[in-house]
Amino acid sequence: MFVDYWEYFVNYWFEKSYLEIIRTFWYFFILELPRFLLFDFIIVISVILNRQNLKTRYQKARKLLWAEMPLISVIVPGKNEGKHLYKLVNSLKEQTYFNYELIVVDDGSDDETPLIGRDLEKNGYIDKFVRNDVRGGKASAANLALRYTKGKYIVHLDADTSFDRDSIENILLPFFFGENIGAVGGNIKVRNAEDSFCSTLQAIEYLNTISMGRIVSTELGIYRIISGAFGAFRTDVIKRLGGWDIGPGLDGDITVKFRKLGYKIHFEPKAVGLTNAPTNFPTLSKQRLRWSKSLIRFRIRKHSDIYIPGKNFNLLNFISFVENVTYDVILNFLWWFYILDIVINNMRMLAIVIPLKVFMYMIMDFVQFTLILMISERWKKELKLYLYLPAMVFYNSYYMRFIRTMAYFKEIFWFSSYKDPWNPAKTSIKAFRNKL
Questions:
Q1: Which pLDDT belongs to residue 4?
Q2: Whole-number Å distance between alpha carbons of 412 and 389
Q3: CB-hemisphere CA count at 13 Å for 86?
Q4: What is the pLDDT of residue 20?
Q5: Quick check: helix, strand or coil at residue 158?
Q6: What secondary structure does DSSP assign to 181-202, as a single string?
Q7: Cα 73 off chain centre by
């Protein structure tokens, strides 16, 4: 029976014309294949061909950095992060760049964070430890840290992030490229990839969307979000903007505000930060619901002026927003019609068409992941992730798409990001009143 099915499966390609195959799998061939594979291929080839020029560029920037050796303000806002502070301090002590001040803000923790933080400050491991007695949210904590900063650049970290020894140095280098760069994003990878099946899939996802996706968006000039886990900013610009606006989604929000001022945003793949990803799907679902809601809140509502031609209109900002909303929102809804189209028009052949669809996405995932490893700094360690690639079809195309769709509906119709417990109710109410 399996032999007959396999023969039928293979014959499908020869019995159908090219137009019939494209008609059946139009979403894959017209929309997803170019976006997720064509651009990746072009960028990887470009990186490989220009390695010598890139090496020279980084060498010049490194000389300028060490000649100036500016003071860096490393700020770490968070709640109940005491258990991570010792590791963070030790990770920073091992960095090749050492001219920094470390400012930690405890945002109303109810664990041992105040005791740990004050002890580290007393013993000289933290330059400044500040506490909000009442939780104000991550943006509020970051803004409190901002008051005490003295450095030319601010490096914003999550307390549970660890780093390669040269990560701080590498995230500073793009500021010395001489290209009006206002902020730099670090390359976030999953540290606990082996803890569970859930975290393993996220390790692959991070490589796709961050390590590769943001290299592509940087080269195209449309890079739009610096992760709060590891990002660097010009201090004078942050203060000019008045710091971070309250509410979830602050990472993407501050990045857009930099772009609107005319500054370039750069992704630095050599500045690697490792973070812990959720190890179970219920926790992951809550995280991604929050992330996806922020796209509607900031890309469609708060920064809607990006779409309107005016004296401050910027074509790249417009393209960045349109690409983001089109692929992540509009085409996300369109995908459901695509699935309905397959079911309605291929009712008799669903047993062939659905597996064939899954097979094509698997092939694309394998090719894309191979491209990623070609430019990854730790490709030998990441090779074993190949074994889990078949599951990414179901993770990305079904699980994550369902999460995004649910988040978009909740945010579009019920403004649910303003009710998210991740942010204190008082700041969410204020943000809603001011449409932040």
A1: 61
A2: 33
A3: 5
A4: 87
A5: coil
A6: EEEEEEEEEES-TTS-HHHHHH
A7: 22
Q: Which amino acid is at 114?
A: P
Q: What is the DSSP string of 2-22?
A: HHHHHHHHHHHHHHS-HHHHH
3-state secondary structure of 102: strand
Dihedral angle sign, alpha carbons of residues 405, 406, 409, 415 = negative
The pLDDT value recorded for residue 420 is: 83
Please report the pLDDT score of residue 258 as a whole number.
96
The residue to which tokens 């509607």 are assigned: 296
Residues listed for the chain? 436
CA distance 412 to 301: 10
Looking at residue 176, the DSSP 8-state letter turns out to be G
Q: What is d(CA 295, CA 304) in angstroms, rounded to the nearest whole number?
A: 12
Residue 429 has a pLDDT of 78
With a cut of 70, list the residues of the chain below it in pLDDT. 1-6, 8-9, 247-249, 435-436
The residues, any chain, with a CB within 8 Å of residue 19's CB and separated by 6 or more, are none
Strands (E), 141-261: 153-157, 162-163, 181-190, 230-234
Two tokens at 398?
A: 């079904």
DSSP H or E stretch at residue 375: helix 350-375
pLDDT > 90: what percent of the chain? 76
In this prediction, residue 8 carries a pLDDT of: 67
Q: What is the pLDDT of residue 29?
A: 93
Cβ neighbours of 19 (radius 10 Å): 8
For residue 387 the two structure tokens come to 């074994």
Residues contacting 74, CB < 8 A, separation 6+: 92, 100, 101, 102, 103, 154, 155, 157, 168
| Separation between Cα atoms, residue 194 and residue 171, nearest integer Å | 27
What is the torsion angle, in degrees rounded to the nearest 10, for the CA atoms of residue 385, residue 273, residue 140 and residue 435?
Answer: -50
Residues 140, 77: Cα–Cα separation, whole Å = 9
- CA–CA distance, 20 with 25 (Å, rounded to integer): 9
- pTM for the model stands at 0.94
